[in-house]
Every structure is written in structure tokens, then in C-alpha cells.
Amino acid sequence: MKFDVNCSILFTDRPLLERPAAAKAAGFDGVEFWWPFAAAVPGDRAVDAFAAAVEDAGVQLVGLNFLDDIPEGGRGLFSRPGDRVRLRDNLDVAAGIAGRLGCRALNALYGNRVPGLSERWQDEVALENLALAARKAAAVGAVVLVEALNSYESPSYPLVSVKGAIDVIEGAGEPNVRFLCDLYHLARMGEDLTAALAHPLVGHVQIADSPGRGRPGTGELPLGRLLDGYDGWVGLEYKDPGLDFSWIKEFAQ
Predict the structure, then answer these.
(1) What per-residue confidence (pLDDT) applies to 252?
(2) pLDDT band, residue 250 (cuts 50/70/90)
(3) Residue 192 and residue 219: Cα distance in Å, rounded?
(4) pTM
């Protein structure tokens, strides 16, 4: 098991381009990010500066979101018909970053429901976009991730169970679409976490303790037991203003 730190939720007291080095200084060899740019298709300077910051820090980019609307309070664009062009204009940019940095996982947040539009239409748009994204990701040796969130914090997000996410993954019809197993969100929804981790389509794991979304040890989840024997990257996607990573030593015991 290897821990990587999500620098879009941790180290946010530092400018974006300083976060990979801060993660390295804290002892991490891997980082992941939500979409790190303001523009849908950032200019070469923005992409190059981001990629250089990761390279110069000597860390692995483990995961990267495709263009998302998290800063605007959203939960992704893949199912949103009005954002189809905006999203598709971004796919090559995200895949290019992944190819340059050896990133093997690109997260495709499904998107909140759009009131007044057919849910069936939104789901069809999502599957089309996922299939296109998967083909572009495959060209650089990456997988596309589909994530289930919890309905308490994301009430308009339709994928709130392992089954819901797996149905979408299978519907996309591409061999490199995988499940992002976020134990915090699944725990909030009462899912069987052991079964979720054992699912053959798991492509990446993220953790936070529950309730509270704090660092391991601040809630009720037996994360050490759950992850015992898991040998992939585990993304730290929790809230901790104090940046206390002392739990990792205890976690490994």
C-alpha cells in the first residue's frame, strides 16, 4: 500500500504549483488533483507550469480529474448536455498531462442532475462522453474512473452506490473504465466496504474517516483493517487544517 495526497484538499494553504513539493517534503511520493486550472482548455504555459512542478518535486501524479466544476459547487460535467463541448475540448488536455507525467488514472465525475432535462438523456450523454474519454485515456495507458459520492453532501449526484457506479462503467462499454472506491462516501451510504474493495473493477482507492471526513483515526472506520493486504495507491482525500500525518506510522503497525 502506498499513500498519495490529494493536493486539491490538502496543502491548500500553498499556491497550486508549490503543493507537489510540499507533499514530497511531508514524505509522500505521489499526488493527485482535482482539475487544477480555471480554464476549460488551459494554455500551454499553465499546463507546462503544472507538469514542471510535479516533475521538479519528484513525485508521481497518481490521479487527475478531467475538467470539473467543483469550484462552482458542482460535481462534474460528464452527464451534463450543456457542458458537452466544454468537456470534450478538455479531454485531450487531460490525456496529454497524463501521458507526460505517467498518470494512470483520470477521474470522470459524473455530474449533478440538471432539473428539467430527461434523466435518460443525461445518462446517454454521460456514456458517450465516458467512452470517448476512455479511448483517449487508453492511448496514454490510463484508465478512466467513475466515482460514487454520498447523497448527504451531494444530493443531486445520481451515483450514490457501488451498483450505480458499476452499472455506468459497464454501460460505457470500454475495457479501461474502472471504479473509484472512495471509502468515505461509501461508508456514509452504508455500503459493504470490504465487498467494495474486493470488486474486480476497482481502479483506485481514496480514504477519509467517517463521520467528519477527517484524517484516519478521527472517526469510526477501521481503515487499517479494511486496507490490510491492499497493494495499490491509496489517495488521502480528507480535511485536516493541521496537516498531521503522524497517523501513518500507527496505521502501518
Answers:
(1) 64
(2) confident
(3) 17
(4) 0.97
Give the active site residue among 32, 124, 237, 250: 237
CATH classification at residue 106:
3.20.20.150
Q: How far apart are CA 187 and CA 194, in angstroms?
A: 11
Q: Alpha-carbon distance 48 to 102, whole Å?
A: 15
215 and 207 in contact (C-beta within 8 Å)? no
The pLDDT of residue 24 is: 98
How confident is residue 43, by pLDDT bands cut at 50, 70 and 90? confident
C-alpha cell, 158: 445520481
Above pLDDT 90, what percent of the chain?
A: 95
**481503515: which residue's cell?**
223
Judge whether 72 counts as a catalytic residue.
Answer: no
Domain residues for 138? 2-251
- DSSP codes joined into one string, the chain: -EEEEETTTSSTTS-GGGHHHHHHHTT-SEEEES---SSSS--HHHHHHHHHHHHHHT-EEEEEE-S--GGGT--BSTT-GGGHHHHHHHHHHHHHHHHHHT--EEE--B----TTS-HHHHHHHHHHHHHHHHHHHHTTT-EEEEE---TTT-TT-S--SHHHHHHHHHHH--TTEEEEEEHHHHHHTT--HHHHHH-TTEEEEEE--TTTS-STTSSS--HHHHHTT--SEEEE----TT---THHHHHT-
User: Is residue 253 predicted with pLDDT exceeding 60?
Assistant: no
Q: For the chain, how many structural domains are there in total?
A: 1
- Which residue of the set 119, 147, 220, 250 is catalytic? 147
Residue in the block written with cell 514524505: 27
Reply yes or no: is the peptide bond before residue 211 cis, omega within 30 of 0: yes
